[in-house]
Amino acid sequence: MMPLRAYLLLRGRLLLRLLREVGAVRLALLGPVLLILTGRALLLAAPHPLGQWAVPALLAFTLASAHRQRADLRFLATSAPGFRRWLAAEYALLALPVVVVLLAFGDGGAAALTLVLAPGAAALPPARESRSMRQRARSLFRSEAFEWVSGMRTGGLWAWPLLLAGAVWQHEAPLGPALALLGWLLVLLASYGTPEQLTMLAMAARGPGAFLRRRLVLGVGYAALTGAPFFWLLGAGPAGVGGTLAVGVFWLGLVALLILAKYAFYPNAVHIRTTQALVVGVALALPGNPVYPVLLLVAVGGLIWQSQRRLRAVLGDVEAHAAERHVELAETSHVG
What we know:
The protein is an all-alpha fold. The protein is 82% helix and 0% strand. Helix 3 packs parallel to helix 6, helix 7 (131-140) packs across helix 8 and helix 12 packs antiparallel against helix 13 (269-285). Keywords: Membrane, Transmembrane, Transmembrane helix.
């Protein structure tokens, strides 16, 4: 059986390969933004008497979502019976920087809870599609909103009520509903990070512009519907109507950017996810910066242009292939 050290070395090599695929330019942009974002979030949450307890919960939620989507879980289960110990050690190592920050602020309880919850994600089973969950997802969302259907099957159906319960518990402070909205955005980020099959896109598309508009209407519409209880809780608290309206527009705008980023780099999943992470990171890390409005305007315009350009190229290739196939079938029928 492969020892733990060999497994961790293998994971390190896979990470280096992934970083090379991301590319130096995206990595140079994404790395500092994520460091700034996570550092600022930790520095804000660690001194807070309640915010410190949100850190282990949010980290555990993120690790659990990523763990259940891992493509190698079934392979490890058949080839290495003790693989869950390796995964627990891996997740504990990933959580160590967070634990160090919490300990630096004297949050010993939150640090201990982080060390318990983070490795515990290794015990979760892979995401599965049970019959009851498929039926429930289809009853809640239109089949063409396949990101929402698959997202609910793989964790959204239990994540949404848990996040709402946390927001209700902490509704008197703006931090509670705001953190719940951030958690729900991460769930949607995972749902929109996986490109659908080309055949699904070709069947749903009616031209790049019409296709994008339909995806935006469905995605932002369902986001507004599921986010409405969080917005209501935020408005009922100290944030008020004006603050809630600003947060709502900002949050729904991020959902729209996630959709545009998906089709701007379709079907490369790595480029889609890194671009989406960069968009969310910049949006959360730089508010108040003088260059933020200009940067946001450039990002919106660039993603709209690139997504239409990419879809036009992809759909053009599909139509050309279909035309060639039609000619081949016609020639075969004529010869026969």
